[in-house]
Design goal:
about 400 residues; 13 helices
């Protein structure tokens, strides 16, 4: 690469990092705080919480990364345009490829990174995170729940125990289960025990009250009753594995006897094609950014900031790909659109770049934006003037 191209690439990459890291940190913090109950409810250490936070991070990166590329590219080129660097490059007779090439190198590198994270790192981290949460809640009944107090294990499931003994033995078990919309279940048992693997709560000498939606109640007494904990995502040592948790090899060749696959084969199809298409977004978004601001332009041409235009189109494309991918869950015939939508945007952008066309706003839109911008600017100056006069008084 030429020195000028290295210079552009370095500036774009720095702006990309400046954008990615703060946004990633904010979203990561929000996601992590949503799991703070792992510490407050189950008594886990702060070290376990930090480990869980690390496993959550790879699930966020593929979502944030393409938009960070958009901001990095547009902000770099806009700054170079404002500093007249793009005008100097054009005046020197340099090819537009001098500007396009470093940006595409950045886009391809980020696309490869996104592909690796999405297909190999993210599924494994999802499984690890779910297993950590599952193991924490598996110990909730046997070691954390206070005696003689009601405790919510998960939405719609409440438990009270009278006494806890060694060997995971519980006495005086009272359990309410509202998770099934068709039945309200109440369990009483004199004693019970939790299996070592955390999958089963075996209750002995008790009864279960069942109330249907129409108000009918039935009471069944039992000598021994095994309550399956494996259906609870946060109460068993072996969390269920969904399509998003599977590796790429399984999605390409799913096990026809797998229960999760048999229950929802469409979700596996949708997940496969999402992973094989999402990696293209950094490249397509970069092409869109280059169309919006890929060469020298006057600041008088439009009031709308190039980054706003590029982000708006990118968000629209992201929503469209998300919509089409969800449609493929129920209709295999939609699958070609999962790849066709981003490819169509990319081809259109390449044609515009090849013919040296830039994306411009219609005259009436530009005029409207200019008027709104001027109005807001006047109101802002007026408010600032009132504040300054009040401060002086």
């Amino acid at each position: 690469m030429k020195i000028l191209e290295v210079y552009i690439l370095r500036r774009a990459f720095q702006m990309f990092l400046v954008t990615l890291l703060p946004v990633l940190t904010i979203i990561w913090t929000i996601q992590v705080l949503g799991r703070i109950n792992l510490v407050t409810d189950t008594g886990q250490s702060i070290g376990s919480f930090a480990t869980l936070a690390t496993f959550i991070l790879p699930t966020i990166i593929p979502v944030v990364l393409p938009f960070a590329v958009v901001i990095g590219v547009t902000q770099t080129l806009n700054a170079m345009n404002n500093d007249s660097e793009l005008a100097v490059i054009d005046a020197a007779g340099a090819s537009r490829l001098t500007i396009y090439r470093p940006m595409m190198v950045l886009a391809i590198a980020m696309a490869a990174f996104s592909f690796m994270v999405t297909n190999f790192v993210e599924p494994a981290s999802r499984v690890k995170a779910r297993e950590m949460v599952a193991e924490a809640y598996a110990d909730l009944l046997s070691s954390v729940i206070e005696e003689k107090t009601f405790r919510s294990i998960e939405d719609g499931l409440y438990v009270q125990i009278s006494e806890r003994h060694s060997g995971r033995i519980l006495t005086g078990i009272f359990m309410v289960d509202y998770r099934d919309p068709n039945w309200d279940l109440i369990y009483y048992a004199r004693e019970g025990s939790i299996a070592e693997d955390g999958k089963t709560l075996t209750m002995r000498d008790g009864e279960v009250h069942r109330k249907s939606k129409d108000g009918r109640i039935s009471i069944v007494k039992f000598l021994s009753y095994a309550f399956d904990l494996s259906s609870m995502a946060e109460s068993t040592g072996e969390a269920p594995v969904f399509a998003s948790d599977r590796g790429l090899d399984f999605l390409l060749n799913p096990d026809p006897t797998d229960k999760t696959f048999l229950a929802s084969p469409g979700s596996f199809r949708s997940e496969l094609h999402r992973r094989l298409s999402d990696w293209m977004l950094p490249i397509v978004f970069t092409l869109i950014s280059l169309v919006v601001i890929g060469g020298a332009r006057s600041s008088r041409r439009a009031r709308l900031h190039p980054m706003v235009a590029a982000l708006g189109i990118s968000f629209g494309l992201k929503w469209l790909t998300f919509y089409v991918t969800n449609l493929s869950k129920n209709s295999p015939s939609v699958v070609p659109l999962v790849y066709g939508v981003p490819i169509a945007f990319a081809v259109l952008a390449i044609l515009m770049l090849a013919t040296n066309r830039q994306l411009t706003l219609p005259a009436f839109v530009s005029t409207f934006i200019s008027r709104v911008f001027d109005h807001v600017q006047r109101r802002f100056k007026r408010v600032r003037g009132v504040e300054n006069n009040g401060g002086a008084a």
